[in-house]
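Protocol step 4 of 6: structure prediction from sequence.
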Amino acid sequence: MPLRDLIGVRIGFAVVDPEGRSVVMVVEDEESYQDALNIGLSVEGFIVMAASTITQARELMSSTKPDLVLLDVMLPDGSGIDYCREIYDTSRIPVIMVSARTSEVDIVLGLEIGAADYVTKPYRLRELVARMRAVLRRPLAANEDEIITFGDLRIDFVRRTVTRRGIDIELSRKEFDLLALFASRLGQVVTREVCLDTLWWGLELSDTRTLDTHVKRLRQKIEDDPSAPRHLITIRGVGFRLDP
Protein backbone atom coordinates (compact mmCIF):
# COMPACT_ATOMS: atom_id res chain seq x y z
CA MET A 1 0.00 0.00 0.00
CA PRO A 2 1.53 3.37 -0.97
CA LEU A 3 2.45 5.66 1.89
CA ARG A 4 0.08 8.31 0.58
CA ASP A 5 -2.81 5.92 1.24
CA LEU A 6 -1.96 5.48 4.90
CA ILE A 7 -4.64 6.95 7.11
CA GLY A 8 -2.62 8.83 9.70
CA VAL A 9 -0.38 11.75 10.44
CA ARG A 10 3.37 11.70 9.79
CA ILE A 11 5.43 12.80 12.80
CA GLY A 12 9.13 12.57 12.01
CA PHE A 13 9.26 9.18 10.35
CA ALA A 14 6.50 7.61 12.45
CA VAL A 15 2.86 7.31 11.48
CA VAL A 16 0.40 8.29 14.19
CA ASP A 17 -3.18 7.30 13.50
CA PRO A 18 -5.91 9.47 15.05
CA GLU A 19 -7.84 6.32 15.91
CA GLY A 20 -4.83 4.71 17.60
CA ARG A 21 -4.47 1.87 15.10
CA SER A 22 -1.18 -0.02 14.85
CA VAL A 23 0.91 0.19 11.66
CA VAL A 24 2.11 -3.19 10.37
CA MET A 25 4.65 -3.71 7.61
CA VAL A 26 4.07 -6.99 5.75
CA VAL A 27 7.17 -8.24 3.91
CA GLU A 28 5.83 -11.08 1.76
CA ASP A 29 6.57 -12.02 -1.86
CA GLU A 30 3.72 -14.50 -2.33
CA GLU A 31 0.94 -12.42 -3.85
CA SER A 32 -1.88 -14.56 -2.46
CA TYR A 33 -0.64 -14.19 1.11
CA GLN A 34 0.09 -10.49 0.69
CA ASP A 35 -3.38 -9.75 -0.71
CA ALA A 36 -5.06 -11.78 2.02
CA LEU A 37 -3.08 -9.99 4.74
CA ASN A 38 -3.75 -6.55 3.26
CA ILE A 39 -7.48 -7.20 3.38
CA GLY A 40 -7.67 -9.26 6.55
CA LEU A 41 -5.46 -7.05 8.71
CA SER A 42 -7.21 -3.91 7.48
CA VAL A 43 -10.55 -5.41 8.51
CA GLU A 44 -9.02 -6.18 11.93
CA GLY A 45 -8.18 -2.51 12.36
CA PHE A 46 -4.49 -2.35 11.36
CA ILE A 47 -2.87 0.06 8.94
CA VAL A 48 -0.95 -2.13 6.48
CA MET A 49 2.22 -1.33 4.56
CA ALA A 50 3.28 -3.97 2.02
CA ALA A 51 6.66 -4.90 0.55
CA SER A 52 7.59 -7.84 -1.67
CA THR A 53 11.36 -7.64 -1.21
CA ILE A 54 13.90 -6.61 1.39
CA THR A 55 14.86 -3.67 -0.80
CA GLN A 56 11.27 -2.38 -0.80
CA ALA A 57 11.05 -2.95 2.95
CA ARG A 58 14.19 -0.88 3.54
CA GLU A 59 12.72 1.96 1.46
CA LEU A 60 9.51 1.92 3.49
CA MET A 61 11.44 1.70 6.77
CA SER A 62 13.57 4.71 5.82
CA SER A 63 10.51 6.97 5.77
CA THR A 64 7.97 5.26 8.01
CA LYS A 65 8.26 3.56 11.36
CA PRO A 66 5.79 0.66 11.74
CA ASP A 67 4.73 -0.72 15.10
CA LEU A 68 5.29 -4.32 13.97
CA VAL A 69 6.86 -6.20 11.05
CA LEU A 70 5.51 -9.46 9.60
CA LEU A 71 8.55 -10.87 7.82
CA ASP A 72 8.71 -13.85 5.48
CA VAL A 73 11.87 -15.94 5.87
CA MET A 74 12.41 -16.64 2.16
CA LEU A 75 12.45 -13.52 -0.03
CA PRO A 76 13.62 -12.95 -3.62
CA ASP A 77 16.56 -10.71 -2.72
CA GLY A 78 17.79 -12.17 0.53
CA SER A 79 17.12 -13.96 3.80
CA GLY A 80 14.42 -12.75 6.16
CA ILE A 81 16.60 -13.98 9.03
CA ASP A 82 19.39 -11.60 8.00
CA TYR A 83 16.93 -8.72 7.57
CA CYS A 84 15.47 -9.43 11.01
CA ARG A 85 18.97 -9.00 12.46
CA GLU A 86 19.30 -5.75 10.51
CA ILE A 87 16.03 -4.40 11.94
CA TYR A 88 17.06 -5.19 15.51
CA ASP A 89 20.48 -3.62 14.99
CA THR A 90 18.85 -0.27 14.18
CA SER A 91 15.51 -0.19 16.01
CA ARG A 92 13.27 -1.72 18.66
CA ILE A 93 10.47 -2.61 16.24
CA PRO A 94 9.21 -6.15 17.01
CA VAL A 95 9.36 -8.72 14.19
CA ILE A 96 7.17 -11.79 13.72
CA MET A 97 8.79 -14.28 11.34
CA VAL A 98 6.41 -16.00 8.91
CA SER A 99 7.58 -19.06 7.01
CA ALA A 100 6.66 -22.36 5.40
CA ARG A 101 9.67 -23.85 7.17
CA THR A 102 8.39 -25.81 10.14
CA SER A 103 11.50 -27.55 11.47
CA GLU A 104 12.44 -26.97 15.10
CA VAL A 105 15.87 -25.72 14.00
CA ASP A 106 14.37 -22.95 11.85
CA ILE A 107 11.94 -21.89 14.57
CA VAL A 108 14.62 -21.81 17.28
CA LEU A 109 16.96 -19.86 14.98
CA GLY A 110 14.29 -17.25 14.30
CA LEU A 111 13.54 -16.81 18.00
CA GLU A 112 17.17 -16.79 19.09
CA ILE A 113 18.08 -13.89 16.78
CA GLY A 114 15.43 -11.89 18.58
CA ALA A 115 12.19 -12.39 16.64
CA ALA A 116 9.18 -11.75 18.85
CA ASP A 117 7.38 -14.81 17.45
CA TYR A 118 7.53 -17.37 14.64
CA VAL A 119 4.41 -18.35 12.67
CA THR A 120 4.36 -21.21 10.18
CA LYS A 121 2.36 -21.35 6.94
CA PRO A 122 -0.42 -22.08 6.40
CA TYR A 123 -1.83 -20.13 9.31
CA ARG A 124 -5.25 -18.94 10.40
CA LEU A 125 -5.74 -15.19 10.31
CA ARG A 126 -7.42 -15.20 13.71
CA GLU A 127 -4.42 -16.90 15.33
CA LEU A 128 -1.96 -14.59 13.55
CA VAL A 129 -3.86 -11.51 14.71
CA ALA A 130 -3.93 -12.85 18.29
CA ARG A 131 -0.15 -13.31 18.19
CA MET A 132 0.33 -9.82 16.73
CA ARG A 133 -1.76 -8.23 19.45
CA ALA A 134 0.09 -10.20 22.12
CA VAL A 135 3.40 -8.85 20.80
CA LEU A 136 2.06 -5.28 20.60
CA ARG A 137 0.86 -5.52 24.22
CA ARG A 138 4.35 -6.31 25.46
CA PRO A 139 5.67 -3.48 27.60
CA LEU A 140 8.63 -1.42 26.45
CA ALA A 141 11.42 -1.61 28.96
CA ALA A 142 11.88 2.13 29.03
CA ASN A 143 11.61 5.28 27.02
CA GLU A 144 13.82 5.19 23.95
CA ASP A 145 16.21 7.73 25.47
CA GLU A 146 16.33 6.14 28.92
CA ILE A 147 19.25 4.55 30.70
CA ILE A 148 18.69 2.76 33.99
CA THR A 149 21.51 2.56 36.53
CA PHE A 150 21.32 0.67 39.80
CA GLY A 151 23.97 -0.95 41.94
CA ASP A 152 26.91 -1.55 39.63
CA LEU A 153 24.69 -2.19 36.58
CA ARG A 154 23.91 0.20 33.74
CA ILE A 155 21.26 -0.73 31.14
CA ASP A 156 21.11 1.25 27.90
CA PHE A 157 17.83 0.49 26.15
CA VAL A 158 18.67 2.36 22.96
CA ARG A 159 21.99 0.60 22.35
CA ARG A 160 20.77 -2.61 24.00
CA THR A 161 23.89 -2.78 26.12
CA VAL A 162 24.57 -3.66 29.74
CA THR A 163 27.68 -2.75 31.68
CA ARG A 164 28.78 -3.87 35.14
CA ARG A 165 31.34 -1.73 36.90
CA GLY A 166 32.04 -0.12 33.54
CA ILE A 167 32.72 -3.42 31.79
CA ASP A 168 30.45 -4.56 28.95
CA ILE A 169 28.38 -7.68 29.61
CA GLU A 170 27.66 -9.81 26.57
CA LEU A 171 24.00 -10.85 26.55
CA SER A 172 22.05 -12.77 23.93
CA ARG A 173 18.99 -11.03 22.50
CA LYS A 174 16.64 -13.07 24.67
CA GLU A 175 18.75 -12.48 27.78
CA PHE A 176 18.64 -8.72 27.18
CA ASP A 177 14.89 -8.81 26.48
CA LEU A 178 14.31 -10.73 29.72
CA LEU A 179 16.46 -8.31 31.73
CA ALA A 180 14.65 -5.39 30.08
CA LEU A 181 11.29 -6.91 31.06
CA PHE A 182 12.42 -7.18 34.69
CA ALA A 183 13.90 -3.66 34.60
CA SER A 184 10.62 -2.24 33.26
CA ARG A 185 9.05 -3.38 36.54
CA LEU A 186 12.00 -2.70 38.82
CA GLY A 187 11.24 -3.85 42.36
CA GLN A 188 8.01 -5.56 41.27
CA VAL A 189 7.31 -9.25 40.89
CA VAL A 190 7.09 -10.45 37.27
CA THR A 191 5.20 -13.72 37.12
CA ARG A 192 6.30 -16.73 35.11
CA GLU A 193 3.13 -16.36 33.06
CA VAL A 194 4.08 -12.81 32.07
CA CYS A 195 7.64 -13.88 31.16
CA LEU A 196 6.41 -16.70 28.95
CA ASP A 197 3.61 -14.71 27.35
CA THR A 198 5.95 -11.80 26.66
CA LEU A 199 9.05 -13.57 25.37
CA TRP A 200 8.04 -17.14 24.52
CA TRP A 201 4.46 -16.81 23.28
CA GLY A 202 2.75 -20.21 23.14
CA LEU A 203 5.21 -22.04 25.42
CA GLU A 204 3.29 -24.08 27.96
CA LEU A 205 3.52 -22.87 31.55
CA SER A 206 4.41 -26.43 32.58
CA ASP A 207 7.56 -26.27 30.45
CA THR A 208 9.60 -23.48 32.03
CA ARG A 209 13.07 -24.92 31.42
CA THR A 210 13.84 -22.29 28.77
CA LEU A 211 12.88 -19.45 31.12
CA ASP A 212 14.84 -20.95 34.03
CA THR A 213 17.90 -21.41 31.83
CA HIS A 214 17.84 -17.76 30.75
CA VAL A 215 17.38 -16.56 34.35
CA LYS A 216 20.33 -18.73 35.42
CA ARG A 217 22.53 -17.28 32.66
CA LEU A 218 21.52 -13.73 33.61
CA ARG A 219 22.46 -14.33 37.23
CA GLN A 220 25.85 -15.66 36.20
CA LYS A 221 26.48 -12.41 34.31
CA ILE A 222 25.05 -9.74 36.63
CA GLU A 223 25.50 -11.17 40.13
CA ASP A 224 28.64 -11.37 42.29
CA ASP A 225 27.38 -14.66 43.70
CA PRO A 226 24.75 -16.28 41.45
CA SER A 227 23.94 -18.83 44.17
CA ALA A 228 22.94 -15.99 46.51
CA PRO A 229 21.61 -13.32 44.12
CA ARG A 230 21.32 -9.73 45.28
CA HIS A 231 19.41 -8.30 42.31
CA LEU A 232 17.55 -11.05 40.41
CA ILE A 233 15.43 -12.71 43.07
CA THR A 234 13.22 -15.79 42.64
CA ILE A 235 9.80 -15.56 44.24
CA ARG A 236 9.06 -19.23 44.72
CA GLY A 237 5.92 -20.42 42.99
CA VAL A 238 5.26 -17.00 41.46
CA GLY A 239 8.08 -15.53 39.37
CA PHE A 240 11.01 -13.14 39.67
CA ARG A 241 11.85 -9.67 40.94
CA LEU A 242 14.73 -7.38 39.91
CA ASP A 243 15.81 -5.35 42.92
CA PRO A 244 17.89 -2.15 42.65
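Step 5 (inspection) to follow. Residues 3-137 form a domain with the Rossmann fold fold (CATH 3.40.50.2300).
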